[in-house]
Amino acid sequence: MTYTHPPALFSAVRIATLFTSLLVSLGSGTNYVFSAYGPQLSARLHLSHTQMNIVGLSGNIGVYGTAPVWGWIVDHKGPRSLLALAFVTLLVGYTGIRHFFDEGLPADAKDISTLTFLTLVLCSFLTGIGGNGGLTSSINSTAKSFPDHLRATVVGLVISGFGLSAFLFSTIAHVIFPGNTSEFLLVLAIGTSLPMVLGFFFVRPIPLPHSEYGRLGEAPEVIVDEDEFSSESPAVFHREHNNSHTHLLGGHASDEDGFLDEDHLDPSFERRHEQQTTDYVVPPSRGALALSPTRPDSSRHRSRGSMTARSRPDFEDKLLDGAPNIRGKALASSGNFWLLFVMCSLLSGTGLMYINNVGSISQALFAKGNPDFDDRKAAQWQATQVSTVSVMNCLGRIIIGMIADSTKNHLRLPRSLCICLVAAGFIVSQLYVHAVEDVSDLWKGSALLGLAYGGLFGLFPTITIEWFGLPHFSENWGFVSLAPMLGGNIFSLMFGRNLDAHAPAEPAGDATAALANATAAALLAVRADTGAPSDSSHQCLQGRECYAGSLMFTTAACTLALALSVYAGWRDWRNDRRRELLLRARHAQVHAPEVMWDAPEDE
């Protein structure tokens, strides 16, 4: 849609895009709900913990592995094609998973066949593809529809729907179809695909008002009205050699956000503009008094009919909001990209490992020393953890957006300092869960993890815009989003192998083993009464010992991420201070009074 006059900042069409993007995001984050049906799917199909983690990770691979491609598509083609794809893949993926759950294993089979397992993995992968298609479309449209001073807040709000998705769908299924995993999967199939249809018609970038395009630092946009020009009063254009990086001198605003570090600048862009000259216009004013004549200078000219560089649409596209425009090879060679990638890998890998396995953690804690083990009660504890993570995930994305905007707008500190808060939250969550020995206390660790994980994905998209620019934001964020796929795969597979290593082996003769055997017997009896598969060989019954080693590893990983985040925040703060001093000095130089000396004439 083409707008002759862009809508106001808080117009109905812009708010409608924001609201619909939130709905699409709510339907996109169901990969976090895997723990709500993963253990039941595992028991139904006799999957090991490692196999169950592979199924869950295939959904995460679909989300994060396709991010660069989906980002490029939405940057260049718009969101509609991705939303149509999301509708199909979400519907097919969850319908397929439900089919395999309903069919179960053949009567004469003890384990799932390779073909069935691979098809199940493919269905989970399709759900991830669809979820990322919806999320990428909603984030891109929101980021381009609101200016920088509101961007972290509105992007965090939309991404919060992605975190709340698991709670929303698990609550619907629990209230309407309590304990019915098959109907829960049906709710997922329908409830995730329908919002994509709504998004197809309403989710799109809304151009910013003209006044917002001029918010490059403190300098207002120069608006030139051609009607004011006349032959009697031509416009005067001053031309300065663009050998600096400040818009105060030449209209070049690429260092507005303090990117004095070479990683923040697009080298090819700098080379193109280093030796170029930039015009800035002084519109004529009728009745103005000329205080001094214009000195002849080869670098100053008079012309008519041209516009300033700041008013050219192509310039605005390259330097929207004053941020750099880095992509492709420049992104791959940027130290900032790899710094962000490593931090995201360590933190998101920890979060995905916990989210995919919190159901197994709660079952292990509930089963330890419990001869009255009940699958239905265990499922309730699972649902509690999933809901807690989901709600706090949502809150974390909203809260970090407001904190990040406040940090930059009011405290005048870089948003990257907020990564330290996120990393510290992960460390505290892992230490707390490691200390939990009773399933009734696990929700506190889930809340801390969900808050930190939400903060991670609420903050990092905005950091991506600040460090690499808005024009190719979704493509760049797609490459950063490969980090959770890497970290999540490594950490989750490690967790699954650790659980399998603690699975029941040959029965021993001590009292602990006898109690564990009694718990296993109770588990078999309950599953026999409910018609569930009676194989409990893959159920770890040792409580905290099933996963303590994995949590110590993730704690160390998050500590490394905290150290890197301190460096990133300190470096951005240092660059901001240098930029501020540089701009003040150049501002003073530009506004210094001009002293003209009249040389004595030779007699």
Name the features.
mainly alpha; Growth Hormone, Chain: A; 21 helices; transmembrane; 603 residues; single chain
Walk me through the structure.
By secondary structure, this protein is an all-alpha fold. It folds into two domains: 12-208 and 335-571, MFS general substrate transporter like domains (Growth Hormone, Chain: A, Up-down Bundle), CATH 1.20.1250; 227-304, no CATH class. Helices cover 65% and strands 2% of the residues. The chain is built from 21 helices and three strands. It has helices at 12-26, 34-45, 49-65, 67-77, 80-103, 114-145, 148-176, 181-202, 210-213, 247-250, 267-274, 313-318, 328-332, 335-367, 375-409, 418-435, 442-468, 473-480, 482-501, 511-530, 548-590; strands at 236-241, 277-282, 300-302. Strands 2-1-3 form a three-stranded antiparallel β-sheet, with no helix packed on it. The chain is globular. The model is unreliable at 214-322 and 506-537 (pLDDT under 50). It is a multi-pass membrane protein.
TL;DR?
Helix content is 65%, strand content 2%. With 603 residues, the chain is mainly alpha-helical. The radius of gyration is 29 Å and the shape is globular.
For the sheet with most strands, the description reads: 3 strands, antiparallel
Average pLDDT reading = 75
CATH class of the largest domain: Mainly Alpha
| Structural class designation | mainly alpha
Order of helices and strands: HHHHHHHHHEHHEEHHHHHHHHHH
Spans of at least 5 consecutive residues with low confidence: 214-322, 506-537
CATH architecture of the largest domain: Up-down Bundle
Identify the overall geometry.
Answer: globular
At CATH level 3, the topology of the largest domain is Growth Hormone, Chain: A
User: Rg, please?
Assistant: 29 Å
Subcellular location: Membrane
Organism: Phanerochaete sordida
Pfam families: MFS_1 (PF07690)
Keywords: Membrane, Transmembrane, Transmembrane helix
